[in-house]
Design a protein that fits this description.
Number of domains: 2
Helix content: 55-70%
Distance between the termini: 44 Å
CATH topology of the largest domain: Arc Repressor Mutant, subunit A
Number of helices: 5
Structural class: alpha+beta
Number of strands: 3
CATH architecture of the largest domain: Orthogonal Bundle
CATH superfamily of the largest domain: Winged helix-like DNA-binding domain superfamily/Winged helix DNA-binding domain
Strand content: 5-15%
Shape: elongated
Strand order of the largest sheet: 1-3-2
Order of helices and strands: HHEHHEEH
């Protein structure tokens, strides 16, 4: 979760996930972020297991590793059940208030 907490890093990850593979140059283009900053974000994403890299000549291609999001999805599922019950209670309370 920490790796995706930064909005710029999350944006970089989303661009990688939307592409089959993408280079740092392509990630930097039209992003408003320097190539050095993108490289730092990629390092964090790589260390978190969220992206993999494939060197080819002078270029390095990055691709998303969606299976790395499984713990986050599990955590959200767990708390989704918790919040769904709370929303159901709130919905009932609001209906009761409207009927009074």
């Amino acid at each position: 979760m920490r790796a995706l907490a930064d909005p710029t890093r999350r944006s970089v990850y989303e661009r990688i996930a939307a592409a089959e593979e993408i280079t740092v140059v392509d990630l930097t283009r039209d992003s408003g972020v320097t190539q050095g900053a993108v490289s730092q974000h990629l390092k964090t994403l790589r260390l978190a297991g969220l992206v993999a890299e494939r060197p080819e000549g002078r270029k390095v291609y990055y691709r998303a590793q969606p299976q790395a999001l499984a713990p986050l999805a599990d955590w959200m599922d767990h708390y989704g059940v918790f919040w769904q019950g709370r929303f159901d209670t709130l919905r009932k309370l609001l209906k009761d208030i409207d009927n009074d």
